[in-house]
Amino acid sequence: MKYCKDFIVVGKEMIRSDLFILKLQYQEEVLPEIKPGQFVEILIKDKKDVLLRRPISIHDVSKENNQISLVIQIVGKGTEELSKIEMGNSLNLIFPLGNGFSLIGNKVLLIGGGVGAAPLLYLARCLKEKGTAFNTLIGSRDTIQLFNKDKFSDLGPLHIATENGSCGFKGLVTEHPIMEEDFDAVYCCGPTIMMQKVASIMEKRNIPCFVSLEHKMACGFGVCLCCVVDTDTGNKRTCINGPVFLSSELKNF
Ligand SMILES: Cc1cc2nc3c(=O)[nH]c(=O)nc-3n(C[C@H](O)[C@H](O)[C@H](O)COP(=O)(O)OP(=O)(O)OC[C@H]3O[C@@H](n4cnc5c(N)ncnc54)[C@H](O)[C@@H]3O)c2cc1C
Ligand code: FES
After folding, report:
1. Is the whole model's pTM more than 0.90, yes or no?
2. How far is ligand 1, taken at its centre, from the CA of residue 81, in Å?
């Protein structure tokens, strides 16, 4: 079930000049069920040259407060416009969209790269609630991209890999020693090249690896066919059959 509703901005934190977090208050009684890995489509109001809604992953959900939060990187007109929103303003969202992560196994590894790690926080929260043992590995170029490491470490063991060695292990996530441990599943979000490398390592070890694709999207609910990916079982739409796919089912990944 999808909803199209207004949320009120009750929190806005600029992390850096091109990155911010929005906390959004749902106006109805109870937030619908949201799966980790699902996303919203945001309407950019009063901006004639930004016609399409913009897809953004759900970063966190607070059921107690009826709130969701989003981490947004400014890359163009839509996200620039969103960065200007003020506290108390409303945003219209279609949500929850996409399939989300399937929670399988007893011991899993979450791997995120930079801002792409956004959907993993709510995944970590859900795994903790379910009692699944998990480790989180966040890779980043430098410490500036590690804006949410305290939130992750509050939920479970956190490992960090920075390319310049300014925090945690020096190197890429794929070189981190935690990668050698055994896991029932791996959940990966971030730059495509990182997800491809992680998937290739895990596929060789027969560990199911779930990746969340950030394909370009228009409608976000299966109508325009602009987000098609090639899979073992034919073409699939990233917006409704994804954005989470088992890496082994994706062709040319
Ligand atoms: C399922 C999903 C979840 C996403 N989650 C987040 C999130 O949590 N936080 C976040 O900051 N961004 C996220 N994105 C990316 C975000 O949707 C785009 O950055 C945004 O739509 C760009 O809009 P714009 O108008 O600012 O930029 P535009 O003017 O539309 O484009 C600016 C630049 O960004 C590139 N771009 C546009 N859309 C995408 C896209 N979907 N993927 C990769 N590059 C793109 C364009 O090629 C162009 O180079 C997600 C995308 C998808 C599909
Ligand atoms: S974005 Fe329109 S079909 Fe997927």
Report:
1. yes
2. 13
